[in-house]
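Hello again, I could really use a second opinion on something today. I've been puzzling over a protein and I'd love to understand its fold better. I'm sending you its amino acid sequence along with the C-alpha cells. It would help a lot if you went through both lines with me. I've dropped the whole record in just underneath, so have a look.
***
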Amino acid sequence: MRAALYDTLGSAHQVLRVEEVPRPEPGPAEVRVKIEFSGVNPTDWKSRSGATARPIEGFQIPHHDGAGVIDAVGDGVDPARIGQRVWLWLAAAGRQWGTAAEWSVVPERQAVPLPDGVSAELGASIGVPALTAHRCLFADGPVEGRNVLVAGGAGAVGHFAIELAKHAGGRVVTTVSGPEKAKLAAEAGADLVVNYKNADAVQQVQSFASRMDRIVELALGANLELDLAVAGPETHLVDYAAESTDPVLPVRACMNANIVIRFVLLYGVPSAALDQAVAEVSRALADGALTELPVRRFPLDQIAEAQEAVEQGFVGKVLVVP
C-alpha cells in the first residue's frame, strides 16, 4: 500500500515521504480499515518535528484520526463488522499504523461505527478534537444548565466543545480574535461570541453570566486574567494546550477565585473515560449535533504541505486523501 511515513524527526519536507509498504494485517481484537480521509491535528506535526517526540520503531505512519470502511478483522472480532463505515481515534498512539495511508490497523474499540448520514469528512475530523473537548467539558461533571466559556471557539477543539456543550444542555459563550472566527463560532451554536481583543471583553462575558462554571482553555497564560475575572467557587478551568512559554500563576488571585484548574492530554486520559467520551461523541453525531468545519483537502503526495497548513494555523480542518 502507499503510505506517508517518517523514520527520523524534523521539518515536514525534510522527513516526510510517501512509499510503498506492506499492507498490514489485523491481529487479535484488531480491524483493518480502508482509509477514505485522514485528519491532521497539531499533535501530529509536533510528534513528527520532535517537539513532543515519541519512540519510532522502524518507521512511523502519522495521524491519529481518520474515516473509512473495515475490510478485514482479526481473531475475536465479529466478521459482521466487515463493510462497516467507521471513524478512528488515536490510531498512531504507541502504534506504527497511523491513518496517513491507504489502510490502517487499529484495536477494534478504536474503530467506531459512523452513523448513517454522517460524512466521512466529519468522521475523520472528530477523533482528537472532539474527545479532547469532551474531556474538558465533562471530567468534572455534567454541564446541563451550566455556564460554559470556550476559548478559541473557531478552532477544532473549540468548535466541538461548543457543540457538545449545547447538546448536553449548557449555556455557551466563546471568545475569538476576529469576525471570520466569530462567524464560525456562531454557526457552531454559541449563545454569545466575544472578541477577546475588545476592551470590554470581560464585561461582555459577565453580562452573559457573572460566573462561569466551566472554562475550556487553550492559552492559559494569555487568557488567565479574563478567565479569573469571570471565575469563582465551583469554576473548573480546564487547559488542553501548552504555550511556548509556561505561564506564571497568580496564586493569590487563583485562591481568591477558589478556582479549580485541570490539565488535559488525551494520551493520558483513563481508558474508561475515553470509552465514555467515544460513546457520547457518537451519540451527538447520531443526533446531528456535530458539524463540519471548513475543510482543506490534500492528496497523500502533499502530506508535508498538509501538516504545514496545520502548523501554520489553518482555521478549519485539514484532511489528507490517501
In short: The mean pLDDT is 97. The first strand starts at residue 2 and ends at 5. Residues 129-267 form a domain with the Rossmann fold fold (CATH 3.40.50.720). The chain has two domains: 2-125+292-321, 129-267.
